[in-house]
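dude i think i finally got it to work??
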Amino acid sequence: MLTDVEIAQGTKIEKITAAASKLGLTEDDLELYGKFKAKISPEVWQRVKDNPNGKLVLVTAITPTPAGEGKTTTSIGLADAFGQMGRKICVALREPSLGPCFGIKGGAAGGGYSQVVPMEDINLHFTGDFHALTTAHNLLAAMLDNHIQQGNELGIDVRRVVWKRVLDLNDRALRQVVIGLGGKSNGVPRESGFDITVASEMMAILCLANDFADLKNRLGKIIVAYTYDGKAVTANDLKVTGSLALLLKDAIKPNIVQTLEGTPAIIHGGPFANIAHGCNSVTATRYALKLADVVVTEAGFGADLGAEKFLDIKCRMSGLRPDSVVIVATVRALKMHGGVDKKNLNAENVEAVNRGLDNLAKHIENIQGFGLPVVVALNDFPTDTAEEIAAVENLCATKNVRFAVSKVFAQGGKGGIELAQAVEESFNDAKDFKFTYEDEMTIEEKITAVATKIYGADGVEFTAAAKKHLADINRQGFSNMPICIAKTQYSLSDDATKLGRPKNFKVTVRELKISAGAGFIVVLLGSILTMPGLPKHPAAENIDITADGIITGLF
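look at this
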């Protein structure tokens, strides 16, 4: 059996200009990065902005398990299926982070015969967007520490510096550090730390900005520290906004590549959904909707994370609305939610599937709560039995949602025709869209709304530190912002060990942070970390490149 990278390397693809032409783009509309990837020129927007929007399909999933769900693979295969049906189609995805690529999860370019290519470039440095974000973020940190070193004219309280540094790798040793050691000339000593780049507020800003002017305005609002009298210090105060914008002048332009079947793919931005808002850029989605009749996009992890944030944050800020939502599940993952150990997933176990269906049912109910039509895509595995598949289909019937088996991993677009037809039919099922909470609610009320309605919690508990953060948010007048909750992806609760559909639990808020530039309040639940660590045997151990440039082990 061929690996993902071997399939990608063995597929002959056309130059990116050919895929872009399917969206009406010419070579003059592109800024080429070699033969197979490009950025879309900003001038294109002026030509297409008045076009009617195509249909928007959001792909999400059940609560993820080590068995895998295949959300990105399904998104790509679904787009290829629409292409085979003759639709003018585009898939809009996030850029992969190097952290999970070298860690445990692998890349994010799809799998099998439903991939975006060149997968090696997309999973690694791509067009340099993440490097630009990392550099801009760390420039702001450097300017902050230099200001303190050079006399601290603004009166910054070094105990209240909130801007860390970032790195696009999993490195637990950098979560907490002390900087400025080594004498008077080497900076003022203080505690600090590193986050992963995808958790940076600048990543969120890149993905939520409407255009370059909006990007620059948001950058200037970033709060980096507080003065001794409690006043917020921003990037504008440090006079660095122009330099930050300069570093991101190319990063804000959406990237275009293609699938193995030549379907155009706009891939731009990459915040994680467990510690950030988990959606690709508003800019990329808007370009795609103006250029195609159907756009397939995805949001990270389960519907309680990426989809909730797509709908409550991205849609709130952009005015976008999905026309259909696909929830991806697998029989294997449902068995794990039903209590089966990973090593026993190949054996038929209809009872475990039925137990695990509680998790799928909750995600269906959540999306229906937004007033959106749902299609369940069962990602096919060779070990699935007819009885197990029937159990999933029966649940969908009781929930009045459409169901389709997806075979895109093994068959590409051909294996997604049934799913594409179900999605197209669901466009007629749309109801009145509504958010989980309204702007005028308090931050406490917004957190409680998400916790009780989306997670199924009985309520919310706030630590003493979190209560102080709430008071500070209210004092500064940011309570009207939406919330971006960071929690474990492995459970509907904030406890990663609670699989399925947990009952009789509360979630604990330990910290809140103001992301004034992004325009939301970050809420950290439980023990979630914003700098991941590597596993005992990282994927990096198996990745290699030969003397003639052939990459192996990448997935």
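The first strand starts at residue 30 and ends at 32.
im so relieved honestly
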